[in-house]
Amino acid sequence: MKTEIIEEVVRKILAEMEDSKDNKFDYYDYGIFDDMDDAIEASNKAQRELFNMSIEQRGKLVDSMRAAILEPDNLETLSRKAVEETGIGKYEDKILKNKAAAENSPGIEDLTTWAKTGENGITIEEYCPFGVIGSITPTTNPTETIICNSIGMIAGGNSVVFSPHPRAKETSIMLITLLNKALEKVGAPRNLISMVREPSIENTNKMMKNNKIRLLVATGGPGIVNTVLSSGKKAIGAGAGNPPVVVDETADIEKAAKDIVDGSSFDNNVPCIAEKEVFVVREVFDKLILHMQKNGAYLLNDKEIIEKMDKMVSKDDGKPKVDYVGKDAKVILRDLGIDVPSNIKLIIFKANKEHHLVQEEMMMPILPIVCCDNVDKAIDYAYQAEHGNRHTAIMHSKNVDKLTKMAKLLECTIFVKNAPSYAGIGVGGEGFTTFTIAGPTGEGLTSARSFCRKRRCTMIDSFNIR
Predict the structure, then answer these.
(1) Which residues contact 269 (CB under 8 A, 6 or more apart)?
(2) pLDDT above 70: residue 10
(3) Which residues contact 349 (CB under 8 A, 6 or more apart)?
């Protein structure tokens, strides 16, 4: 009996091997490849198969990815793994971000059709896939970016080859394996989502140069975004920001204080939308700081300690030291020789508008606060500190004219009024979620339609039924 079972197993394996002679990608490690060209070739094959599936079938694929991420054990494991591997952020906030990305990233419903009829017939325009997309993802939001991009790109009919940050390698492998397993169960082509086992600059460059990559999407700092925009290919660049906050005398100060602490400390300030510096009208300056302290902010008053902190967390060129990006406020304070209670989640200090930590995006729970004579100066200072990134800005005010002035002056992709910054990406606010926010190239908050080409189809003298 055992011999018969073994023989049957061997026959099945041999049959599968025979079927796969012309397809070296039938045996794969759920989208994880040793060679970038192999990953792209497999992704190209998968995309051609996906292209022949219906929109409704794509919807089922998206649903399978959402369900896989939202399974409680998966959500917890991925969130913990991201923090453990990268050393960045907070596990509890990673859960919220991953959950928001899975639930709120638009799927096939985003792909609306435009139609025009008249005496000359009918014309329609639809969102259609580019093909194989190359997506570069950051160490700060490794899982969230892969989740929202995978949902949007596959909903749009594309396959995607990811090039994650090497410091998020194992987390990315775990997530892509999970998504591919879920997709396979509902009949998706293999390797719709892929990456190389060893991400590197060399592999990223190889991806950008491959002719089968039809669209590049970079989520990260100005260096990688500029590289992608110089590639000669269609590219979407989601770059850095330095989001300012303005608080005027008409604001609900108690609420503003809590909102700013919550937003700036969220995932230890690594989201690109998070509050990075505050400009406050003098009339309410002390009151705001008092209420921020009541909501988990620790006020540094000693100028020598503030200078020591700046040097400790900054490199010689003024950029943030990797060792402190996304670290808990308690860790930073501990290294300054300051012990604080467990409820402390943000470091605040009074600064002038030219202070290095005002002008440089640090991605740490350190928030400088600048006192301003009036709201107009506060808005001007915020404009200067944002450096024309046009990424995100926040204002707490009940003065509609001043809210309008700030929105028009800064021209940011996201402008949040009277709420924490994360309300701007659908966490506690209306609207969908994404962690690829394309300010430099103008797509704004990306969704499925951002990863598609618009194509027109025209028929003459028919289908005009009015």
Answers:
(1) 275, 276, 326, 362, 363, 364, 365, 366, 367
(2) no
(3) 299, 300, 301, 306, 366, 368, 369
Q: How far apart are CA 389 and CA 257, in angstroms?
A: 25
d(CA 155, CA 50): 10
| pLDDT (0 to 100) of residue 6 | 56
pLDDT digits over 246-277, tens only?
Answer: 999 999 999 999 999 999 999 999 999 999 99
What pLDDT score does 20 carry?
A: 43
Distance CA 266, CA 198 (A): 30
pLDDT category at 5 given cuts 50, 70, 90 is low
> In this structure, which amino acid lies at residue 204?
T
Alpha-carbon distance of 179 to 44, in angstroms, equals: 18
Q: Rounded to 5 degrees, what are φ and ψ at 235?
A: -140, 145
CA dist., res. 295 & res. 29, Å (int) = 47
Q: For 231-251, how does the pLDDT look when each residue is reduced to its tens digit (9 = 90+)?
A: 999 999 998 899 999 999 999
112/51 Cα distance (integer angstroms): 17
> If we measure between CA atoms, which residue out of 47, 241, 26 comes closest to residue 128?
47
Between CA 461 and CA 103 the distance in angstroms is 43
Closest among 128, 148, 135 to 50, alpha carbons compared: 128
Phi, psi of 403, deg, nearest 5: -60, -40
Helical axes 55-70 vs 142-155, angle rounded to 10°: 160
> Could you tell me which of 364, 361, 349, 366 has the C-alpha nearest to residue 285?
349
Residue 221's pLDDT is 84
